[in-house]
Design brief:
Layout lengths: L10 H41 L5 E3 L2 E4 L3 H7 L1 E14 L2 E13 L5 E12 H4 L11 E5 L2 E10 L2 E13 L5 E11 L19 E4 L9 E7 L3 E12 L2 H5 L5
Antiparallel strand pairs: 1-3, 2-3, 3-4, 4-5, 5-12, 6-7, 7-8, 8-9, 9-10, 11-12
């Protein structure tokens, strides 16, 4: 009984299999390269930001480049990068930050664009801001504004007071303005009843925030609750250089 003849190999089918194997291997290599490069890019961006924080600012940050990074690296620009820190201190005040930037040069030279971020201050850290104005001794958050405590002299009496006030961003974005509204005398030994205190009630108190931020950044709005204050910051352009980030604004 004769055996069946062996089927001849089809060169076309073999070539197709080889091509498919090569494509799969290349795809795996691209995925691995993307994974490795993403980690490197994110780490380099985070380190550069940490090293370029303005004087008086300290903390660690995380960075994440959105999208597939390989074609962006080839083009020389990262489309969008998220930069965040769960805890960073500015002049001793702890806060959290979450910022989005666009058009980030891969070589670290030039400007980023359309900077938009949020800085969050917990109610436990807001009291430290009272040191920026001699008008009040302590500041705490309430829904929609702040509560101030302080002391002054009225009609020859030394009085202590508690006031609730509004807090808004200044029109030029370089600071915030606190305006005490309702006032209550807290001296237990004084039987004074006043609706307002001259020099306190409805007296705007500017607080310069530009002195702690890179020069191009502006404060745009605030959302205040009893638990925290969220401050929105923006910039059309922001220098990526160490000198550019370390140069703070003035009021």
């Amino acid at each position: 009984m004769s055996s069946a003849p062996a089927r001849p190999r089809r060169p076309g089918r073999t070539a197709t299999i080889v091509v498919l194997v090569i494509v799969v291997v290349l795809a795996v290599l691209v995925v691995v390269a993307e994974f490795v490069l993403r980690g490197v890019v994110d780490r380099i961006i985070a380190q550069q930001v940490e090293q370029s924080l303005p004087e008086g600012t300290d903390g660690t940050v995380q960075a994440h480049a959105d999208g597939i990074v390989i074609p962006q690296l080839i083009s020389g620009t990262l489309d969008q990068v998220e930069i965040a820190s769960k805890r960073i201190t500015v002049d001793g005040v702890p806060l959290a930050a979450d910022v989005t930037v666009h058009d980030v040069p891969v070589d670290g030279k030039g400007n980023v664009h359309d900077v938009d971020g949020t800085v969050t201050l917990a109610s436990s850290s807001i009291k430290d801001l009272a040191k920026y104005s001699p008008l009040f001794d302590r500041l705490t958050l309430v829904d929609g504004g702040v509560q101030l405590s302080g002391s002054t002299a009225v009609l020859g009496y030394d009085i202590s007071y508690l006031a609730k006030g509004s807090v808004v961003a200044q029109s030029d974005g370089k600071g915030i303005t606190i305006t005490p509204k309702t006032v209550r005398i807290t001296n237990s030994a004084l039987d004074l009843k006043v609706d307002s205190i001259p020099g306190v009630t409805n007296t705007p108190v500017p607080v310069c925030t530009a002195q702690f931020l890179p020069e191009a950044l502006r404060v745009r709005s605030l959302d205040v609750t009893a638990a925290h204050a969220e401050v929105r910051i923006t910039a059309d352009e922001l220098p990526l250089s160490e000198q550019g980030l370390r140069t703070v604004g003035t009021c």
